Amino acid sequence: MRYAYYPGCSLTGSARRLDRGLKKIFAKLGHELCEIPEWNCCGAFEFGDRGALIELSKTNLEKSRALNAGEGVVAPCPACYKNLREAHGGKTQAVYHPLELLGEEVTGSLNIQNDLKGQVFTPYYGCLLMRPDETAIRNKEVMESFITRLGGEIDGAKVKAKCCGGNQFFINKWATEKLSHAVLEGSKGMIVLFCPLCHMALTSFSRDRKIVYFTDLLLYATGERTRL
Amino acid sequence: MRASEQAMTIENLARLAGYERKDFAVCLGCKICGSVCTINDLSVAANPQALLSSLFLEKELKSDDPVLHYCTNCYNCTSACPWHIRIPEIVRAIKGKMGLETPFEKAFKSSVGIWGRVYEPYVFLKALPFLVRGGYLAYLTRWREYVNFHLPHKVRNVGGARQKDARGGKAR
């Protein structure tokens, strides 16, 4: 299948690993990710004027139409995903978060080389993949399904949808530190997530916990990475 | 823009937030938004409902209101609200009107204004004094994996009005 791809700003910089991992996994699944030409920033949460914010994403959706990627738009960053979903208003092509396309029936077709037996994981979804209802992903246990299928142990159910405070990181750092600690202390094992901002917040405040993207886990399972 | 459109009224803020006055007027006053608010986890009392009431009662908003200062955009309030009222959107509209932005947020918007995208090296350097003062450099060793130098790409066709909005940091 052919999807239009909206990487968003962080995936071209600090979250480049997520970008590369996602492209590799989609290629393994036989899907093509076609980057939207001349895409612009979605504005994240930095605009008080929601009209201006929505307009940024509408422009990106307009640009994506030039690709004729009939399956819709894929946006990995939860903030970009939410903004694009709210801008499209159900009238144009579908907007997907990759987790919606990586369900059990899809990842079941991956050629698994490494299992996850004996390892503990906390699948962490954070805020924007879970709320608000209109834009939340439908399958809220997609990471758990994959991990348990490969023999991994799940922890941290109570914190999986709690806020890490990432949005406050460059405003009130102490607030992010306190909220991230609550997530870290309320869970065990490796934290598996999909949000670049959560990754930065939790990495900054964790002492010895490993924070990985879900794509890292998929690449390890398929033998593309030798360790997590 | 006329002065009446700039006033901090519920009508103007609702419009900025992408809604109408009636979308917020349905608030039942149940305060469930406050009980689920992430700000409570910071041991700071948060009351989004009181903030909303202040707008309807035309009381002057305090810039040090905890909801304005610490809202994380987690949408716990919206999910719990019987009417799914979008509190984070109205908070962002108020913050925009009040100009409550850190140098980092200003650098973010400045980058979008110049290139149409967030160019992280520019944002980092522009906000460097703020980052130094705030003790952020202590995390540099943990941020090694985020360092990924690349040249900026100037996006064509972002839209003049949008770029101007980003540069000025103000709502249109």
Present the secondary structure layout.
The complex is a heterodimer of chains A (228) and B (172).
Chain A: E1 2-5, H1 16-28, E2 32-35, H2 50-65, E3 73-74, H3 78-88, E4 95-96, H4 98-101, H5 104-107, E5 120-123, H6 142-149, E6 153-154, H7 173-185, E7 190-193, H8 196-205, E8 211-213, H9 214-221
Parallel strand pairs in A: 1-2, 1-3, 3-4, 5-6, 5-7, 7-8
Helix pairs in contact in A: 1-9, 2-3, 7-8
Chain B: H1 3-6, H2 10-16, H3 21-25, H4 32-36, H5 48-56, H6 66-70, H7 76-80, H8 87-98, H9 103-115, H10 120-126, H11 128-133, H12 160-168
Helix pairs in contact in B: 9-10, 9-12
Q: What's this entry about, in short?
A:
The complex is a heterodimer of chains A (228) and B (172). Chain A has helices at residues 16-28, 50-65, 78-88, 98-101, 104-107, 142-149, 173-185, 196-205, 214-221, and strands at residues 2-5, 32-35, 73-74, 95-96, 120-123, 153-154, 190-193, 211-213.
Give an overview of the whole structure:
Chain A has 228 residues and is an alpha/beta fold. Chain A is built from nine helices and eight strands. The longest helix of chain A is centred in the first third of the chain and has 16 residues, at 50-65. Chain A starts with a strand and ends in a 7-residue tail after the last helix. The longest helix of chain B has 13 residues, at 103-115. By secondary structure, chain B is an all-alpha fold. Chain B is built from twelve helices and no strands. Chain B folds into two domains: 3-98, no CATH class; 103-168, no CATH class. Chain B has helices spanning 3-6, 10-16, 21-25, 32-36, 48-56, 66-70, 76-80, 87-98, 103-115, 120-126, 128-133, 160-168. Classes of the chains: A alpha/beta (228), B mainly alpha (172). The interface between A and B is large, with 49 and 61 residues.
